[in-house]
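COMPLEX REQUEST
Ligand: zinc ion
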Amino acid sequence: MSWIERIRRWLETWRPRRSVDAPRPAGPLPMVLQQLEATREIELSCDEVHAVLDQFAELVAAGVDAAALMPLVQHHLDHCPDCREEFEALMRVLRSAPGS
Ligand SMILES: [Zn+2]
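STATUS: Structure written out below.
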């Protein structure tokens, strides 16, 4: 399975906690746009960020615009020094890992 397929599946399972009023999007792209729109209102907890942080870091390490795909995670990292530190530690590991 390609990484973009993995992202799509991941996004399709994503359920922002406070967007129950929003209509269910038809596919991955509207979901991404909805996430972008929701960035200002929804905040993830540190636990939720930790749950997807390795995926997020892998995307960044792969040169993907992870902030656009997971704006809620990026938003949290921008405001939470603890998670930011965790993310940077992950990035160091990914960057120092031998090519897969
Ligand atoms: Zn945090």
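REMARKS: The radius of gyration is 14 Å. The pocket of zinc ion is lined by residues 46, 49, 76, 80, 82-83 (CB under 6 Å).
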